[in-house]
Design a protein that fits this description.
Helix content: 25-40%
Strand content: 15-25%
Distance between the termini: 58 Å
CATH class of the largest domain: Alpha Beta
CATH superfamily of the largest domain: Metalloenzyme, LuxS/M16 peptidase-like
């Protein structure tokens, strides 16, 4: 039963898009066959065996004679989609020593060639069916399972049958030839290489330490170079035959189609599957055990001091217990809830201590059942400095108090209110739960050997359990969480000599004095007691926006609002506030304050409310407060619900009218930004994250990632001096979309945003601030300090910006996806040079400059020239030769299905209409959205390519320190043989 884990009708949400497209006429689906192996009335479904958790009646279960288990369910979120999951009960923990990486390699091979798919035909086949590779068609390999995922849009009975047939051929009859293994291994090695680096090495060493003497210690799903390079068709087939068997398979299908049809297709295509040879039990994963002679009261075992330059400090210790299967009963889940409450109490205290100036940046306690290998309580924190002992003592002191003294009733009530809000919200939103999420919930439940429960059941269990809660009970659960067989620890630091294994062991064994000041003092805060924003505003204009039944309301102070009250997503309200000038308003010397603003502007407080008060006043409420800097606008964003909307609006408006400037959040953000900067140089991707935006803005200092020297010069006083005037500038637009009462929302807006003082105009210098694209020329070469076999490369062309040519930006998205497909084929399939190259189109709409098209890949240093050559060739070919119609449809069909799915949500319409009170052209352009994204011609694509790829692209290469950029393109094996 997942404790903390949409039949949306189309309504008017998708009608505007649907009406703009030619309507297909489908033959009536045939009546589904009657499944023969459904769980019968009175029988217990397989997932509920041994449990008294009430069954979620929307699920239908079945079990085939060969052992295949399945679960199906009707769900219309998003409309016309079916989500299918095929779970194989075998992951990396099932591998022999010589097979490390085979479970994941098999995942790749199933997509390469199978009974109904020729070599490399999986991606184009699924694209023709409207599924996007990587999101709609995907797979995952974990230590305990391999899952194949398919989200099929625009479903009907024929398409379902074809998809289930193809999927069955992949799972039941993959072609595991030497040739296919040889072709796929370089791609897996590329994936492994791109994951490598200091952080990965540190993670592996941490894993070896925390799970010492268990299979989990040295069986990463990605495998090893030695075992992967030694793989053959025969050895991979042996692993496949051992574990890919009916009795190890669970199939989940959820979607907008008769569930009997789903069940019938599962039975049809998997019912006659037979395993090869006798079935085998899973291997013994091992138990965590203390070393001989360990103190039973404090059984410190294996520890590690891990030195990796270019990483952030992190300390993790774990109190570990053997994992055992459980009976997933109501009583068991009540215990889990008490455990979770106990952890929440400690985590709130740890966060409060960090905010108040503790020796750590953050700290968290979390119990987890890891890969059916251990039941452990993990304590993780990031020391602010090299004084890790002080940080460890600080964290342990907070935990020590929780182990001695029971929590106060006020603390318990606060956490209970938070949980009650989460569970009640899940019940409210039950009918808008996405089918893909429901399918994943079943898969995860099977993996941890537990059941699933309806949101109503979870809420009922919680409501019943909370009546029995006592401080002593939570104290007992806290003590259980921090007792175990062995304690293990790993400390990651960039500095050699900072720690030793002996010092870590001694620090964990040292007695600790409980922090008497760890408790958070009770404090009553109410929105009703907060000062008014100002005198309620006056509405000057009110009426229909001209799209659906969306309304516009303007106030005398210049604030403009857009409202759409609808019940398509019960219990959800999205609020977005747009104000000011965004990056255009940032001064050339203010890069540090821009970065700190994204981290600490909200945390610095609102009116009379500091961080702790903001947390307390929103306890038990569904409220958010995200801040972002856009190209031409600043934004606040929050997800709330109807009953909390008025207070959500108050917080946003108060941040503009009466901002608070607490120093601690700014100082903490400085520390976080400094620690993050130190890790950028460790990998090519880190260097890209640090420098690419700055370089693509032609060295505009506003976009420079602040280094430690810049951060050290920043002060809380300077932070306020920069941000305070920016909060007063520029027009304000508020968008409220979702399940709320219209009249109440307008009344709340009148008292909040309508009550703001008149805004200052954006300075002329801000309005005229233009983004600059760098000149093409010699490749910019940067260096990283990580692995010698890692590099990254990017090539970019100037793109478009603004609303006037927005229709062209949509067509450019099609061209970009064509480019992406070709680059993926060139770099991954044919050479294995890069696992996942990406091409994207950035077209800002709030400004009229700054757009670009960028292609990026992680690869081997020697393959950087090949990447540039491939990108240049694709750009040239697109500009000289129109793409084939089939290639074009492989892009437009997934785009069409994607739009049909996302247009069922309020955020889609909010994002389309934001800014329309300043530029009404956005509303008019909405009418052509579907056509622009999904209808084009090869000739239009060629013309667009000639426009945007007519000049040489700007290039960046990130290579290892001490190496030079190769100038010769290394031939692939296939090219060398020609």
């Amino acid at each position: 039963m997942a404790i903390l884990t949409r039949a949306v009708r189309r309504l008017a949400l998708v009608l505007p898009l649907a009406l703009l497209a030619p309507q297909a006429i489908h033959a009536q689906d045939p009546a589904p066959a009657t499944p023969a192996y459904l769980t019968k009335e009175g029988q217990t479904p397989w997932i509920y065996e041994g449990s008294d958790v009430p069954r979620d009646e929307e699920w239908i279960f079945g079990k085939l004679p060969n052992g295949v288990r399945y679960a199906v369910r009707k769900n219309g979120v998003p409309p016309d989609q079916v989500s299918i999951r095929v779970r194989i009960d075998a992951g990396s923990l099932y591998e022999d020593d010589s097979e490390r990486g085979f479970a994941h390699l098999l995942e790749h091979l199933l997509f390469r060639e199978s009974q109904y798919l020729g070599p490399a035909m999986a991606i184009p086949t699924w694209q023709r069916l409207g599924a996007t590779f990587g999101s709609d068609t995907n797979a995952e390999t974990s230590p305990t399972h391999t899952v194949y995922k398919l989200d099929l849009p625009n479903i009907d009975a024929k398409k379902l049958a074809e998809s289930m047939k193809i999927l069955s051929g992949m799972v039941r009859a993959p072609v595991l030839s030497d040739a296919n293994v040889k072709a796929e291994v370089p791609i897996v090695l590329a994936e492994k290489r791109e994951r490598g680096g200091p952080q990965q090495r540190a993670a592996e060493k941490t894993r070896e330490t925390l799970f010492a003497a268990q299979r989990l210690a040295d069986r990463l799903p990605i495998g090893t170079d030695e075992t992967l390079n030694a793989a053959t068709g025969a050895t991979v087939s042996a692993f496949y035959k051992r574990w890919y068997r009916p009795e190890n398979t669970v199939i989940v299908a959820v979607g907008d189609i008769d569930p009997m049809q789903l069940a019938a297709e599962v039975e049809k295509y998997f019912g006659d599957w037979k395993g090869s040879g006798p079935s085998r039990p899973a291997p013994d994963f091992g138990d965590p055990k203390a070393p001989k002679g360990a103190d039973p009261a404090n059984p410190v075992g294996e520890v590690a001091a891990i030195v990796e330059p270019g990483t952030q400090r992190n300390f993790t210790y774990a109190i570990m217990r053997p994992w055992r299967p459980v009976q997933d009963t109501i009583a068991y889940n009540e215990g889990l809830l008490r455990d979770t409450l106990a952890q929440a109490l400690i985590n709130r205290r740890l966060e409060a201590r960090a905010r108040a100036g503790g020796d750590y940046l953050f700290a968290q306690v979390q119990q987890d059942d890891v890969s059916r290998s251990t039941d452990a309580t993990f304590v993780a924190f990031a020391p602010l400095t090299g004084d890790w002992k002080a940080a460890l003592a600080d964290v342990r002191a907070v935990i020590a108090d929780a182990l001695i003294n029971p929590p106060t009733q006020e603390e318990i009530d606060r956490e209970v209110a938070e949980f009650a809000s989460i569970f009640a919200s899940s019940v409210e939103q039950r009918r808008v739960m996405a089918g893909a999420k429901l399918a994943d919930d079943i898969v995860n439940a099977v993996d941890i050997r537990e059941t699933v429960a309806a949101p109503e059941t979870v809420l009922t269990v919680f409501e019943s359990m909370k009546k029995t809660l006592t401080p002593q009970q939570l104290l007992d659960h806290t003590r259980q969480l921090f007792s175990g067989s062995v304690i293990r620890a790993a400390y990651l630091t960039p500095e050699a000599g900072e720690a030793s294994e002996a010092a870590i062991r001694d620090a964990l064994k040292a007695p600790i004095e409980a922090a008497s000041d760890a408790r958070i003092a009770a404090q009553e805060i109410s929105f009703a007691d907060l000062p008014a924003i100002g005198a309620p505003g006056t509405i000057t204009q009110q009426g229909a926006l001209g799209v659906l039944d969306i309304e516009r309301v303007d106030f005398a102070n210049g604030v403009r609002t857009i409202l759409w009250a609808n019940d398509a997503e019960p219990g959800r309200v999205s609020v977005k506030v747009r104000f000011g000038g965004g990056w255009r308003s940032i001064g050339p010397d203010d890069a540090a304050y821009a970065t700190l603003g994204q981290m600490a502007l909200v945390e610095a407080g609102v009116g009379e409310l500091g961080q702790e008060e903001l947390d307390r006043i929103t306890t038990g409420r569904r409220m958010g407060f995200d801040f972002a800097i856009g190209d031409g606008v600043f934004t606040f964003l929050g997800q709330t619900r109807g009953q909390d909307l008025a207070d959500q609006l108050y917080l946003f408006a108060a941040k503009l009218a009466m901002p608070r400037w607490d120093a601690n959040p700014i100082v903490r953000a400085q520390a976080g930004a400094r620690l993050a900067y130190e890790s950028y140089a460790g990998t090519p991707a880190g260097v890209i994250n640090r420098d690419l935006e700055y370089l693509l803005r032609a060295g505009d200092p506003r976009y420079k990632t602040p280094d430690p020297e810049m951060l050290a010069k920043a002060t809380p006083e300077g932070f306020r001096k920069m941000w305070e005037p920016l909060l007063k500038q520029g027009p304000v637009e508020v968008l409220v979309f979702g399940d709320f009462n219209r009249d109440e929302a307008i009344a709340a807006l009148t008292k909040t945003f309508g009550a703001l003082p008149p805004r200052e105009a954006l300075p002329a210098a801000v309005l005229s601030n233009k983004a600059t694209f760098p000149n093409s020329g010699e490749t910019v070469v940067l260096h990283h300090m990580g692995e010698a076999n890692q590099a990254a490369a990017a090539i970019a062309w100037p793109g478009g910006a603004g609303v006037e040519n927005l229709r062209e930006s949509r067509q450019l998205e099609i061209l970009t996806q064509l480019f992406n497909n070709r680059l993926l084929d060139a770099m991954r399939e044919r050479a294995g040079a890069s696992y996942a190259p990406v091409v994207n189109n950035q077209w800002p709409t709030d400004v009229d400059s700054g757009g670009r098209i960028t292609a990026f890949a992680q690869l081997r240093p020697e393959d950087v020239p090949a990447f540039f050559q491939a990108a240049d060739k694709i750009a040239r070919d697109l500009a000289t030769t129109p793409p084939a119609t089939d290639e074009l449809q492989r892009v437009t069909e997934p785009l069409l299905q994607y739009l049909n799915r996302v247009s069922t949500g309020n955020l889609f319409w909010l994002y389309q209409l934001e800014g329309s009170t300043q530029d009404p052209m956005r509303i008019a352009l909405l009418r052509s959205l579907l056509v622009d994204f999904t209808e084009t011609t090869p000739e239009k694509m060629q013309a667009l390519a000639q426009k945007y790829f007519g000049t040489a692209g700007w290039r960046l290469a990130v290579i290892p320190e001490g190496q030079k950029l190769a100038t010769r393109v290394t031939a692939t094996p296939a090219e060398a043989g020609r």
